[in-house]
UniProtKB/TrEMBL annotation:
Ranges where the Aldehyde dehydrogenase domain occurs: 14-472
Alphabetical GO biological process terms: gamma-aminobutyric acid catabolic process
Protein name listed in UniProt: NAD-dependent succinate-semialdehyde dehydrogenase
A Pfam family reported for this protein in Swiss-Prot or TrEMBL: Aldedh
PROSITE patterns listed in its UniProt record: ALDEHYDE_DEHYDR_GLU (PS00687)
Length: 479
């Protein structure tokens, strides 16, 4: 921890908050304070905005190859420091070291991917239908951006936004979640080492999000907001963007259905369930929330899933052999407890887990519930914890209707051995992504995002850079 920056990163320099304020960073495995970091206020936001605005014009003129090579160097540094970054992430967020190392690799890949996309920004050329003008299309950076990232994937959510912004030629202000600021500060130090010019990336850690973000969005100089977080906060930010018509991309909440048909390979289905539910202790917007299992296989599926979940080892993420770390904080754990209690009171049976352990830290055991009533609160709430809620179905049309009966539409999971059914059901699900016989859909080379109230736009893949680029059309008379 001693080498990790704890100040704000503004204009290429490490600085204290203007009013000297700091905020604690807690270890969710123990409840102890790891360190204190600068707690930015409105004046710090103004300083960061000024740095980003001043750097924008020159950065936009920088050759794509230069931007590409900066990202490539940063990718290599991240890979070299995998263990260091993984330990830092586990300390502030709680996930087991094996998962943290996996996230470091995932995060690094966004920089490698967008280093390759930076040199492939293309426009277009052609004669217009009336023959009078030639059309020249060019693409240019949208301008200074505000990037807001969540605590559950503190490194990868940063690189998924910073990578395309750098590749497109945009300057940025990054506001990480107050629970996990250290990964973002470490990332800023890596990018500075990789040669990123001063002012292109600015990092403001803060517990005063409204004081920092609202003036930036309403001020007119920030031209792009990229946000990952809850739908509730996303709606508020969209309203703040309206006055100055800030371009937005939103990766919001999920309520993922996990559908197991009668012809599913149950080994694949249980393996997929373990990934879709237990990745990041269930604290992921892609986590399977509602398990719809055909009545003919529900008993066997529930038995196998409970056996696998019950075998997982819960404990501090730094301890060898641990599979499940703590939840992010006591508020998050209390929410999970309340949802499980509500389901049980409405008739659900607990196959495994369901009881909060005594002692320090924010631990909650992997839990499987069956006979879950459709009016249980966890059916229309993002659980964000290690709880699998199983419901039954008999008919394909019925399960699709129930799966789509939610305002969210991020991801769905379908397990069946029938190709026709797989394509038919995937096409009818109202989601932005489908995992077919797999519990993992996230990949830097694929477009990530949802429909309905799960968000706007896409991150990653070839289209990820589009969120940070504008078109300009130039009409040239044909002579």
């Amino acid at each position: 921890m001693t080498d990790t920056p704890t100040q704000l990163f503004i204009g290429g320099a490490w600085v204290d908050a203007a009013d000297g304020a700091t905020m604690p960073v807690d270890d969710p495995a123990t409840g102890e304070i790891l360190c204190h970091v600068a707690d930015a206020g409105a004046k710090d936001a103004q300083r960061a905005e000024e740095a980003a605005v001043q750097a924008q014009e020159e950065w936009a003129r920088t050759a794509p190859r230069v931007r590409s090579e900066i990202l490539r160097r940063a990718y290599e540094i991240i890979v070299e420091r995998t263990d260091e970054l993984a330990h830092l992430m586990t300390a502030e967020m709680g996930k087991p070291l094996a998962e943290a190392r996996g996230e470091v690799a995932y995060a690094a890949e966004f920089f490698r991917w967008f280093s390759e996309e930076a040199v492939r920004i293309e426009g277009g050329h052609g004669v217009l239908p009336d023959g009078r003008n030639r059309m020249l299309l060019s693409r240019r950076p949208v301008g200074p951006c505000l990037l807001i990232t969540p605590w559950n994937f503190p490194l990868a959510m940063g690189t998924r936004k910073i990578g395309p912004a750098i590749a497109a030629g945009c300057t940025m202000i990054l506001k990480p979640a107050p629970q996990t600021p250290l990964s973002s500060l470490a990332l800023a130090a890596i990018l500075k080492e990789a040669g990123l010019p001063d002012g292109v990336l600015n990092v403001v850690t803060t517990s005063r999000a409204g004081e920092v973000c609202e003036p930036l969005l309403r001020g007119g100089r920030i031209r792009k907001l990229s946000f990952t977080g809850s739908t509730q906060v996303g709606r508020l930010l969209l309203a703040q963007c309206a006055d100055t018509v800030v371009r937005t991309s939103m990766e919001l909440g999920g309520n993922a259905p996990f559908i197991v048909f009668e012809d599913a390979d149950l080994d694949k289905a249980v393996d997929g369930a373990m990934v879709a539910k237990m990745r990041n202790m269930g604290e992921a917007c892609t986590a399977a929330n509602r398990f719809f299992v055909h009545t003919s296989v529900v008993k066997e599926f529930g038995r196998r899933l409970a056996e696998r979940m019950g075998a997982l080892v819960v404990g501090p993420g730094t301890r060898e052999g641990v599979d499940v770390g703590p939840l992010i904080d006591r508020t998050g754990r209390a929410k999970v407890e309340e949802l499980v209690t509500d389901a049980v009171e409405r008739g659900a049976r607990v196959l495994v887990g369901g009881r909060t352990p005594e002692g320090p830290g924010c631990f909650y055991p992997p839990t499987v519930l069956t006979d879950v009533a459709s009016d249980s609160r966890l059916m229309d709430t993002e659980i964000f914890g290690p709880v699998a809620a199983i419901l039954t179905f008999d008919d394909e049309d019925e399960v699709i209707r129930r799966a789509n009966d939610t305002p969210w539409g991020l991801v769905g999971y379908v397990f069946t051995e029938g190709l026709d059914r797989a394509l038919r059901v995937s096409d009818r699900l109202e989601v932005g992504m489908v995992g077919l016989n797999t519990g993992l859909v996230s990949n830097p080379a694929a477009p990530f995002g949802g429909v309905k109230q799960s968000g706007l736009g896409r991150e990653g893949g070839r289209v990820g850079i589009d969120e940070f680029l504008e078109y300009q059309y130039l009409a040239v008379p044909v002579r």
